[in-house]
Amino acid sequence: MIRRRVLLSIAVVSVALPLVGSPTRASAATLAFSTVQLPDYGGEPSITSDNNGLLYVSTPSGVPNPKVTNATEPGTYRSFDKGASWGQIESPDPSSGDTCLATDQANALYWCNLAGSQGSLPLQADVWKSNIAANAACTTTAGTPPGTPNSCNWVHGNPAALGTTNPTPTPCTVPGQASYPTSCNFFGVDRQWTAASNIVAPHPIPAGYTGPQVVLMYHDFYGPSQIWVNISNDGGQTFGAPIEVLANSATVTGAVVAEGFTLCNTVPAGVQIVKPNLPHAGRIYVSWISVDVASNANGCNISMDQSFHTAWVAYSDDNGTTWTPQMVYDSGVGHDMSTPFASFTLDDRGNPYMAFNTPSPAENPAVCGAESNLGTVQSDASCMFNTYVVWCQCGGNTVSFDDGAGLIGGAAATAYQVNATPASCPTDNTRPVECGTNIYATVAAGDPGQVDVSYLHTDEIVPTGALGVGKFDPLGCDKNDEPAPPPTYPARCHWNLYGAKSLTLTSPPATASWTNVQITSAPMHYGDICNLGIACAQAVGPIPRDPRHLLDFNQETIDPTTGCAHISYADDNAGSPYGDPTNPSPHGGHLVVANEIPDPTTGICMTLTTDVTGIPEAPWAALFVPAAVVGALSWVRGRRRRTAALALN
Questions:
Q1: CA 508 to CA 414: how far, in whole Å?
Q2: Residue 633 phi, psi dihedral angles, 5° rounding
Q3: Residue 647 maps to a domain
Q4: Cα–Cα distances in Å, from 384 out to 249, 258, 364, 435, 436?
Q5: Alpha-carbon gap, residue 374 to 379, rounded angstroms
Q6: Nearest to 56 by CA among 158, 152, 155, 197
Q7: What are the φ/ψ torsions at residue 253 (nearest 5 degrees)?
Q8: Half-sphere exposure of 106 (CA within 13 A, CB side)
Q9: What is the predicted pLDDT for the residue at 385?
């Protein structure tokens, strides 16, 4: 039985103020954050906000499982007070490889999952829904078995028209089986994302649509790493068959070009649906990063041993029937974006944005690789991994990013650089604080051209010589963990979370201004961060550190009631075995949310002009079983450990 106690706010809070430095561009806005730890630890924390500013966080593993000794399960958390305190709620499935979150206009919560308990096929994705997640009655009380009535009334999204009534059942629809994975994709699923939105006029409402549209997006694991979606037309109760996006392109030429870059290697960045009452309402966007045909010879899919240098979207204006692909940006061969994920979002007018980390266009990957192998710590500022944003003002009928003058028409030729780049990075005490490596980019947007960004930063330039393709050297930031470390490796890297903000992306990249702050008061990670997914090398030597202990991303969302950013991240700097015993983090060993502090006069952080009034939906009968437990929120507290999961990212 799960042990409970009354909710207690964790009072470990710190505040980050703007750094003092010598920026190359004018300050864009005031920016400060507080940080609040959650009760447990877990990697890859997803975060979302509903229309009322109620926040949710999920992680795929780390919460002690009360029913299985030394086992963990996913965790889901909720904040009623703008991130100041957090309580745990029930996760709908005790088994998980990846999670993600989304909400709709009626403030229902969608929880997607990889490798869960539903169905018999390996590596499938599921979508669960709770219409009462915002209700205090939704606590940690679980149903048995998973999916049965519980305090959050989670309901699983089943494939449409499957089961014993299906006259031609497939291996995904075993007759007599009680439930099936939402994705039902025989090529397997990896790194899924989900989005939900009501469909209203003037966007055509297809026959049979009885609730919000819900899209599950992912790439396949066992096949050629293509981008797929499953779409629900009834608020996530049932989902259609898998749709391969590029195989259903509205433009043959565009699909052929996109396929040439995409075949064999993709990393999904996200899915979004343009909200009602906006231009292109109901448009579905999917986004990913990819490679090129020549680079695929280095290894397909699992190894990730390539520079993922192209970013893409595809969009559908007919509810997923056909898709139009569009390159977003090409950073250049050898300029890797897979650190390991890019971030994707829409602003409050439905314009798409991507954020990513990669070296500057002037960087020569061959030179940086050779310098990495010289026997000295890297000091060439051109070899830094920077943080970039590109976006599209998509008010018309075309989708064109920034200047649209990139390698392929409509792609950006120049991206917005978020961080400053020093002229040089000497290795003595004159080294500028901006020198180093940025990874784990996130982005959230308000009005067009107004964005919040975050990224992890170390003052070391991670070596990239060993693989010869612009990738980080395995354990290249983990010198102290090597029995015979290469002399090019820096000492173990200290990583801090940074935030950045611009209100001026309607200006060209050369003149847009940014404010950057260091959010964490002490490093939130100590050592290597691998960007090769499940191909990451395991730690060697006497200290059993894990270079993938954070898993693979942070995430960011905007509270639509305040325009303030909230960033979820994992902090494992808690001393042995992962942390720095000489400089531990006050949040070490916990999930953490960084909350942007609003302007004390206005109470907001940036403007949001979209009407966020909730649109009621027809309830599922199953969702409104009276809750068995009503009362105060409760915690389940305990130390998280990451469980192994067969997932690329």
A1: 9
A2: -65, 160
A3: no
A4: 37, 28, 11, 7, 6
A5: 11
A6: 152
A7: -60, -45
A8: 20
A9: 96
> Position 151: which residue type?
S
Q: Are 608 and 56 in contact (CB under 8 A)?
A: no
Eight-state DSSP code of residue 538: P
% of the chain surpassing 70 pLDDT? 78
Give 463 or 168, the one with higher predicted confidence. Answer: 463
How far is C-alpha 27 from the geometric centre of its chain's CA atoms? 27
Cβ neighbourhood burial of 226 (10 Å; 0-12, 13-18, 19+): buried
Q: Determine the structural domain holding residue 189 and report its residue range.
A: 5-164+184-635
3-class SS string, 164-211? CCCCCCCCCCCCCCCCCCCCCCCCCCEEEEEEEECCCCCCCCCCCCCC
Residue 277 has pLDDT above 60, yes or no: yes
- Tallying the residues shown for the chain, one arrives at 649
What is the number of structural domains in the chain? 1
* pTM score over 0.70: yes
Residue type, 486: P
In 3D space, the residue among 325, 104, 295, 292 whose CA is nearest the CA of residue 199 turns out to be 104
Q: Chain-centre distance of CA 328, in angstroms? A: 18
Q: Which of 126, 122, 119, 118 shows the shortest CA–CA distance to 100?
A: 126
C-beta atoms surrounding 343 within 10 Å:
25
Is 175 inside a domain boundary?
no
248 CB-contact burial (10 Å; exposed 0-12 / middle 13-18 / buried 19+)? middle
DSSP letter for each residue of 404-421: --SSSTTSBSSPEE-S--
Structure tokens given for 61: 């593993």
3-state secondary structure of 382: helix
Residue 144 resides in a domain: yes
CB 299 within 8 A of CB 291: no
The predicted-structure confidence for 467-505, as pLDDT tens digits, reads as follows 677 888 878 888 766 667 677 788 889 999 999 999 999
d(CA 84, CA 75): 18
**Residues with Cβ within 8 Å of residue 58, at least 6 apart in sequence:** 45, 46, 74, 75, 76, 77, 91, 99, 100, 101, 111
The tokens for 443 are 């982005």
Buried b (16+ CB within 10 A) or exposed e, 499-516: bbbbbbbeeebeebbbbb
Q: Cis check for the bond before 145: say yes or no (omega within 30 of 0).
A: yes
* Beta-bridge partner residues of 196: 214
Give DSSP secondary structure letters for 326-365: EEEEE--TT----SS--EEEE-TTS-EEEEEEEE-TT--H
Rounded CA-CA distance 213/529 in Å is 36
**641: burial class by Cβ within 10 Å (0-12, 13-18, 19+)?**
middle
Mean pLDDT confidence for 587-609: 93
455 vs 11, more confident: 455
Q: Which stretches does DSSP call E strand in 550-608?
A: 555-559, 564-571, 590-596
The answer to whether 309 and 332 are in contact (CB under 8 A) is yes
Q: Which amino acid is at 141?
A: T
Longest dimension (CA), the chain: 73
| E strand map for 177-320 | 190-197, 213-219, 227-232, 238-239, 243-244, 266-273, 284-290, 310-316
Is residue 235 situated within a structural domain? yes
Read off the pLDDT of residues 298-347 as tens digits, 9 standing for 90 and up: 666 666 777 899 999 999 999 999 999 999 999 998 899 988 899 999 99
In whole angstroms, what is the distance from residue 194 CA to residue 457 CA? 28
